[in-house]
Amino acid sequence: MFSMLLLVLSLAGCGTGSGLTKAEREAQVTRQVQEALDTRHYTIAVDWMKPLGGMPRHVSSNYELTVNGDEVISYLPYVGEAYRLPYGGGKGLNFKGTIENYTIEYLTSNRVHIEFTVTNVEDSYNFRIDVFNNGKSIIDIIARDKDAISFDGEMVF
Q1: What angle do CA 113, 148, 122 make, to 5 degrees?
Q2: pLDDT tens digits, one per residue of 68-124
Q3: Radius of gyration (Cα) for the chain, nearest Å?
Q4: Residue-wise burial string across 42-63, b where 16 or more C-beta atoms lie within 10 A, e elsewhere
């Protein structure tokens, strides 16, 4: 029992030895976010989805949106009404596509707004993403043939 307590205490002490203050950690995350946005290479891990007209839902899987230059990889859940589907039901928001009309706007000192469009054989999607200095992100997706949906998540490094 004593050895188990000693092990727990020693492991608890391992996480506090980063040597960075809270302000230094926040500055480091801000730099990482800025670099990711500047290079257009980032991934946002999603933990909440907000369907149009529905209640927010916690997402328990590894859903994410990845931007790699001019390519987007969308692995996101979809709940909502689809007005037109391909035979077999389609792939929802699970696709890889080419980004068109990518714009980035610095709204405040801690908030960036990104917009781009992706068109594939199923639909046309307008992505609107707000990213904050701490990596927290809000993704709004407006599709031509589906109800809009939003996601909350965080950049992963």
Answers
A1: 105
A2: 999 999 999 998 888 876 666 678 899 999 999 999 999 988 999 999 999 998 899
A3: 19
A4: bbbbbeebbbeeeeeeebeeeb
Point out which residues pair with 111 in neighbouring strands. 108, 132
Tokens of 8: 């727990």
**Hey, which residues does 75 pair with through a beta bridge?**
64, 94
DSSP assignment of 47-108: EEEEETTS--EE--S--EEEEETTEEEEEE---S-BS---TT---TEEEEEEEEEEEEEEEE
CA–CA distance, 99 with 68 (Å, rounded to integer):
9
Which phi and psi angles does 87 have, rounded to 5°? -55, 130
* Residue 7, φ and ψ in degrees, nearest 5: -65, -45
